[in-house]
Structure formats: structure tokens, C-alpha cells
Design brief:
The chain has one helix spanning 4-21, and strands spanning 25-31, 34-39, 47-53, 61-66, 72-75, 83-92, 99-102, 121-122, 138-146, 149-155, 163-170, 177-182, 186-192, 199-209, 216-219. It has 223 residues and is mainly beta. The strands form 3 sheets. Strands 3, 4, 6, 7, 11, 12, 14 and 15 form an 8-stranded antiparallel beta sheet that branches. It has a 4-stranded antiparallel beta sheet with strand order 8-13-10-9, with no helix packed on it. It has a 3-stranded antiparallel beta sheet with strand order 1-2-5, with no helix packed on it. A hairpin with a 7-residue loop joins strand 3 (47-53) and strand 4. It is globular and about 50 Å long.
Length: 223
């Protein structure tokens, strides 16, 4: 007869073996200071957020919000002889309707006079769970402030979001990318644009994170 402690140990080993056989996330050291990640995207997610830390139980920083079809990321030019831990998390949530913005020519970013229009405003308080399409933000507006600045406003309808994303698709691009990650209940934020965003489509998304993947670890080499 197998004792209780032995049975628990066998189940633990089986679970570990399954994780090693079929991990969501894998990594490889592709140069002494470059790590390449590969993952299996979660079906139905709005995308995956790629994160890293220098200790398994450390504070994880966001490397990228990847679009739903993307399944790899290269972390370049890392500190030599240092440990890096990685994970991915799916995120979900329905995007708002889009708004197209065409900025005037010029690359100046003038100093702000008066109230800081770029600061986030948090006065939302929606009533719909992010899992519902009804949680999508409404009434998205875009006010051009200058040749490289846009003030976005919207109505918060989500009740349990982890935050908001402002997403941008520059003219000619295939996918949206995340321009800004904001706190829950945000309803306004001013974006200073990048050079390729003179003409672009924008949308906002109330989102929630899913469960993190397995961790993967690499230690960079000498250079």
C-alpha cells in the first residue's frame, strides 16, 4: 500500500514533469547577453504581457504588451553574469471604438502653461465586469493640444479592471501597440506622441490580467 506522504510526493513529481514537458513559456540564451522567449498564446486573450525580474520572487517589470498572435520576444543587451526570470500573463478586455488623429507638422513639445493636461484623471466608476462587452469604454475623444500632444477622454464603464490601456496603430501598421498603461478608473490622459504617430488610430481598453505562466530562468554570460 502506498502511504499518504509517498502519494503526495508522486503527484508533485508528476505535476512538475508535466510542466517541464509542456510549459507555456520557454527561454534560451541566444548570445551571452540576449535572451529569447517563446510562449503559447492564450486563445481569446487581447494579448500577453511579458515581464521579468532578477529574482524568482522579485518585483516584475513589464517588457511588452504583445498582440494576441505574437509568441516570442528578444530581451537584448542585458547585464552580464546576472540572473533573469521571466513570465507571461494574458490580459483580457474589450476595446473601445477607435478614433483617428492627424497631427500638424512639427516636432516641438512646448512647455505646459496652466493645469497639466497630460496628468491622468481618475473619476470613473463603472458597473460592468471586464468580462462583459458592456465594460468597453464609451465616448472616446481626442483633442489635439499641439503638434505632438493629444488629450484623450472617455467614459469608464468597467467595475473590476486592473487598469486601462491606450493603444495606437500608426498609419500603415498592421497591429495596435500599447502606448500607455494607466490605473483603474482613469477617464483622461494626455499622450506625447512618437515620431511615427503623426497619423494614427487610437482606442482604449479596460483590462484584467490572467494567471501568470510558468517561470523561466536564464543567467547571462561574460562579455
Amino acid at each position: 500500500m502506498i502511504g499518504r506522504a509517498t502519494l503526495v510526493g508522486l503527484l508533485f513529481l508528476a505535476a512538475c514533469g508535466q510542466e517541464r514537458q509542456d510549459p507555456v513559456l520557454t527561454s534560451e540564451l541566444t548570445s551571452p547577453v540576449d535572451v529569447t522567449l517563446h510562449w503559447r498564446p492564450e486563445a481569446g486573450a487581447a494579448g500577453q504581457v511579458v515581464e521579468y525580474a532578477n529574482a524568482a520572487d522579485g518585483e516584475y517589470a513589464v517588457l511588452e504588451f504583445s498582440p494576441p498572435a505574437k509568441n516570442s520576444y528578444r530581451h537584448r543587451d542585458l547585464i552580464p553574469e546576472t540572473s533573469f526570470y521571466y513570465r507571461v500573463r494574458p490580459y483580457t478586455g474589450t476595446a473601445s471604438a477607435t478614433v483617428d488623429v492627424a497631427l500638424p507638422p512639427g516636432d516641438d513639445v512646448p512647455e505646459i502653461e496652466g493645469p497639466d493636461w497630460t496628468a491622468p484623471r481618475r473619476d470613473g466608476g463603472g458597473t460592468h465586469p471586464v468580462a462583459s462587452p458592456e465594460a468597453a469604454a464609451r465616448e472616446l475623444g481626442a483633442e489635439v493640444k499641439h503638434a505632438n500632444g493629444i488629450l484623450f477622454t472617455w467614459r469608464d464603464r468597467a467595475s473590476d479592471e486592473d487598469g486601462y490601456l491606450i493603444e495606437v496603430r500608426p498609419a500603415g501598421a498592421v497591429d495596435y501597440r500599447v502606448a500607455v498603461q494607466l490605473d483603474p478608473d482613469t477617464t483622461s490622459y494626455g499622450v506625447i506622441t512618437l515620431p511615427d504617430e503623426k497619423a494614427a488610430a487610437y482606442r482604449v481598453r479596460a483590462f484584467r490580467f490572467g494567471a501568470p505562466s510558468n517561470l523561466t530562468h536564464q543567467r547571462t554570460g561574460k562579455v
